[in-house]
Description:
Layout: E1 12-16, H1 45-57, E2 62-66, H2 76-84, E3 89-94, H3 103-108, E4 113-117, H4 123-130, H5 135-147, E5 151-158, H6 167-176, E6 179-185, H7 202-210, E7 216-217, E8 227-230, E9 237-241, E10 254-257, E11 262-264, E12 273-274, H8 275-280, H9 286-294, H10 321-324
Parallel strand pairs: 1-2, 1-10, 2-3, 3-4, 4-5, 5-6, 6-9
Antiparallel strand pairs: 7-8, 8-9, 10-11, 11-12
Amino acid sequence: MIVDSHNRIHNYLRISLTDNCNLRCFYCMPEEDYLFTPASQLMQTDEIRKLSEVFVEEGVNKIRLTGGEPLVRKDAGKIIRSLAELPVNLTITTNGTRLHEFVELFKEVNINSVNISLDTLHEEKFKLITRRDQFTNVMNNIRLMLDNGLSVKINVVVMKGLNDNEINDFIEWTRDVPVHIKFIEFMPFEGNRWTSNKVFTLQEILDVIAGKYLFIRLQNDAHDTSKKFYVPGHKGTFAVISTMSENFCGDCNRIRLTADGKMKNCLFSKNETDLLSALRAGQDVRGLIHQNIKRKAKELGGQFSNDFEHIDVSEINNRSMITIGG
């Protein structure tokens, strides 16, 4: 087992396949013209498999593939097939633009759930946020996933003054469509122009929804990062990931592996462990994995607290979101 100094067992690995993306969401990617990691510095297919095998031997039973956009990687299908052979629950987070190319593969390897990032239900605002014209494509692919029996979770980063006025539009979507909406509080990363006055909190989100809908709290599963709710009569559900106002660090079971093979024990950790270089040098990485987890802070990477209104972002030492993998 992979256990930290706070007795938290870590059995969930999030692997970033690439820091490349075919969208340009401002809160994720700092600039339009971005220097992506050279291919030689990325984990190769066999290296992802070898590192994943070590994590599985140490107790990991769930792997999520992230990016950037994981499906823009040319060997994404090969990686997915390889990891699907391991005794894990394999799933993926994507922007949805290329899902139509992978639906048959997902069914073949029994990927039955996808998380799709979508911050607006309006085409023009989608172009504003992503700087790309892919809205219709994404919406069609959401329907394609549902039509093929996959569970679809929609990740919505809520930002005050940008899309907080669409919260109930997303709730209305769940009336007749079995999508599961996950509202996410806006979090600070390098280059994403975060300010505390853009954060729309859990309570603010629930207050907006309560103004139009009656909803009930659902039972959370172990290690859930979100607080889940249900509007009676709706086919879908909604949840809130309240990182900034009410963190869920006490039950954290997540490990992150960046596309260039660095292990992070928290989304906000400033320290990383270079597993890829160690693997390429023929070293046993198990000790490095356990050392990294033992250094894990109690909450939020040890960099800030839920008193988010007083965060000095200049003092946060971390990567941009796109180079972490979410």
